[in-house]
Specification:
Layout lengths: L1 H26 L3 E5 L19 H6 L9 E4 L6 E5 L21 E5 L2 H6 L6 E4 L15 H11 L4 H26 L4 H12 L11 E4 L21 E6 L2 E2 L2 E2 L2 E6 L4 H18 L8 H18 L7 H6 L2 H5 L47 E4 L2 E3 L2 H8 L9 H7 L4 E3 L2 E4 L6 E2 H8 L1
Parallel strand pairs: 1-5, 3-4
Antiparallel strand pairs: 1-2, 2-3, 6-7, 7-10, 8-9, 11-14, 12-13, 14-15
Helix pairs in contact: 1-4, 1-5, 5-6, 5-13, 7-8
Bound molecules: glycine and manganese (II) ion (2 copies).
Length: 438
C-alpha cells in the first residue's frame, strides 16, 4: 500500500499545487497559508474537544494529527511545512515528519503556535483555517474566491486520493462484516459497535463520522447515535451506517440486515438493493446528480406499490409526496476529505450554484457528474412515525395501506449506501469491490 501511495503522491501534489497556483492568481494573492487547526477548549475547562484537521491541510499531505502546524505555498517555490512539535511532557508529541511525502516539503520545526505564526509569509496571503487557529497578529481571511475555486476542483479526485478511498472502503467493509456477525450473534448496539471498531482497528475519534448502529425501530431515526446496552428481544433488523478513515479520507457505508425469519423485511431489502445498484449504474459523466435522486424516488414508488404499501402508481406517489414521507433525505453527496464533501452545489469554479429540485430540501448534491468524482448512493425507505402521521393527514393517505405500513414499523427502515467513483466508462463501486474482498 505504501509503495503505491509513494508512487502516486508526486502527481497528487503537483495537482494540488497547480490548483492552488490558479486559485491564488485568480484571486490576486501571493501566498497560500493553511492552518492545520487547533482543538477547541471546553467551556470553563482545561480539556479540549477532539481535534479534526482542516481538510485543506490534509489535502496537501497525509498528516491528520498536527495541531498548530501550517502549510505554506508560494507559486514557484517548494511548499513549506511549519511543523509544531511542542516541548510537552503531558501529551504525546507528534513524531518528526517521515514517509513518502517529506522530501517534497521544506520542513521547519517550531515549538509553539506563536512561533509557527511568526513563520507565515509577509505579503498578500490567503489564510485558510478556523478562527481559533489564529494567534495574535494574524487574521484568518478564508477568501471566498480562493475557497470557491479550490472546493470546486477538490471534487475531482487524483489517483492517489482514489487509492486512499479504496483502502478506507476496505477497512470499512471488513468492519461491517464483523458488525453483521455481532448482530447475528445477538449483541446489543454497543456490542455491535465494539465489534466494528475492533475489526476496523480504529477508535471512535478516528472514524469519519459517528456510527449509526440501529436495531429494530431505531432504524427509523435517521441520525441515531445512541448505543443501547441490551439487545432487544427479538432483534429483527440492523441498520448500520459506519465508515473508516485513511490519511483523512473517508468511506461512508450503510447496510441493512434482516434477522433470520424476517422474510418480509428481507424481500424489501432485496428490492431496495436492486434499485440501489441501478442508481449506482447511473453514475456517469454528464449526468446531473439531481436526476439520480429523482429517479430513486420513482423507483421507490414502484417498490412501495409492488410490495403492497400503496395502491397508486409510482408516478402519483412521487407527485403527491408519498415517497418523500418514506425517503426524506437526499440520495447522496460528494465524499473525500470530508464525509459530506464541499461544493455539492457548485456550478463552476467561481462560486455559482445549482439549485436543488423543488421539494427536495435535503439533497446535498446537484452537480453534474465528472470522471473521478466520488459520490455516495444511499437510497432509503423508512417507517418514521412523525412523517407517517403527517402523511396520514393528507389526501394521499387514501392510497396507503396503513395496516401493511404499521406492520413494518417494527423494522425501522432500510438504507443501503455505497461510495462510487465516476469514471469515463462504467462506475467503480468502491464499497462493493471492497465487500467482495472482505
Ligand atoms: N453517514 C452520513 C451519511 O450517510 O451521509
Ligand atoms: Mn452518506
Ligand atoms: Mn452514511
Amino acid at each position: 500500500m505504501n509503495d503505491r501511495l509513494a508512487a502516486l503522491y508526486p502527481q497528487h501534489l503537483a495537482t494540488v499545487r497547480e490548483r492552488a497556483d490558479k486559485a491564488l492568481a485568480h484571486a490576486g494573492f501571493d501566498h497560500l497559508a493553511v492552518a492545520a487547526g487547533l482543538p477547541g477548549l471546553k467551556f470553563l475547562d482545561d480539556l479540549h474537544y477532539s481535534y479534526a484537521a482542516n481538510p485543506h491541510f490534509k489535502h496537501w499531505l497525509p498528516l491528520t494529527s498536527a495541531p498548530g502546524s501550517w502549510l505554506i505555498h508560494t507559486p514557484g517555490s517548494k511548499p513549506k511545512l511549519i511543523f509544531l512539535q511542542p516541548r510537552d511532557y503531558w501529551h504525546v508529541v507528534p513524531d518528526a515528519p517521515s514517509g513518502y511525502w517529506v522530501d517534497a516539503f521544506e520542513i521547519v520545526i517550531v515549538r509553539s503556535p506563536e512561533e509557527a505564526v511568526a513563520q507565515l509569509p509577509k505579503g498578500k496571503c490567503a489564510l485558510i483555517g478556523e478562527a481559533q487557529a489564529a494567534v495574535a497578529g494574524i487574521e484568518i481571511n478564508n477568501p471566498k474566491t480562493v475557497m470557491d475555486y479550490l472546493h470546486y476542483h477538490r471534487a475531482i479526485k487524483t489517483p492517489y486520493e482514489l487509492e486512499l478511498m479504496r483502502e478506507a472502503s476496505r477497512i470499512g467493509t471488513r468492519a461491517h462484516r464483523a458488525a453483521e456477525g455481532a448482530f447475528r450473534a445477538g449483541k446489543s448496539e454497543l456490542g455491535i459497535h465494539q465489534a466494528y471498531l475492533e475489526a476496523a482497528g480504529q477508535i471512535d475519534a478516528e472514524l469519519p463520522y459517528a456510527s449509526i448502529v440501529a436495531l429494530n425501530e431505531h432504524g427509523a431515526v435517521l441520525h441515531y447515535t445512541e448505543f443501547t446496552r441490551h439487545a432487544p428481544q427479538p432483534a429483527r433488523s440492523l441498520l448500520i451506517d459506519a465508515g473508516a478513515s485513511v490519511h483523512g479520507y473517508a468511506s461512508d457505508i450503510t447496510r441493512t440486515y434482516a434477522a433470520t425469519g424476517a422474510g418480509e423485511f428481507q424481500a424489501l431489502i432485496d428490492a431496495m438493493d436492486a434499485a440501489q445498484q441501478s442508481q449506482v449504474a447511473m453514475v456517469r459523466p454528464g449526468r446531473p446528480y439531481a436526476d439520480l435522486h429523482l429517479h430513486a424516488h420513482l423507483q421507490l414508488g414502484a417498490i412501495l406499490r409492488q410490495n403492497g404499501f400503496i395502491r397508486t402508481s409510482a408516478e402519483s406517489a412521487v407527485e403527491s409526496g408519498i415517497t418523500r414521507a418514506f425517503f426524506p433525505h437526499g440520495l447522496g453527496h460528494s465524499i473525500g476529505l470530508q464525509v459530506h464533501d464541499v461544493a455539492g452545489f457548485a456550478k463552476d469554479e467561481h462560486g455559482g450554484t445549482i439549485d436543488r429540485p423543488q421539494g427536495h430540501p435535503f439533497l446535498r448534491m446537484t452537480r453534474t457528474l465528472e470522471p473521478n468524482m466520488v459520490v455516495t448512493i444511499e437510497p432509503g425507505l423508512y417507517f418514521i412515525d412523525m412523517l407517517l402521521e403527517e402523511l396520514r393527514a393528507k389526501p394521499a393517505s387514501k392510497d396507503v395501506d396503513w395496516t401493511k405500513v404499521d406492520a413494518f414499523r417494527r423494522y425501522g427502515g432500510i438504507r443501503i449506501e455505497d461510495d462510487v467513483a465516476c469514471t469515463s466508462d462504467a462506475p467503480e463501486n468502491l464499497t462493493r469491490d471492497a465487500f467482495a474482498l472482505s
